[in-house]
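Worked Example 4.2. Consider the chain below.
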Amino acid sequence: MKNIIIDTSCVLAVVLNEPGKTSIIQKTEETFLLAPESLSWEIGNALSAMFKKERLSLKDARVAWHAAQQILIRFVYPNMERALEIAQEQGI
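Applying the procedure from the previous section yields the following structure tokens:
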């Protein structure tokens, strides 16, 4: 199986049933999902921003949070020095 790095927007698209959910699920089938340790905080921050803007109720944010916790993701500690090198090389 191959590794795929997943980000907050992908997790939210799946747990909130947003456009792209089906595609994300299909592309990640039979893969190992990897994410930086900050993913949980990023999800919490995004959900709280949504209910603050009345795009999501607190109840729905809690449901989404619990659904996100059911996704099997291996948390990794990124090599930040290498990440910075790549960012410089790619101009991002």
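Strands lie at 2-5, 31-36, 73-76. Residues 2 and 86 are 21 Å apart (CA to CA). Compare this with Example 4.1 before moving on.
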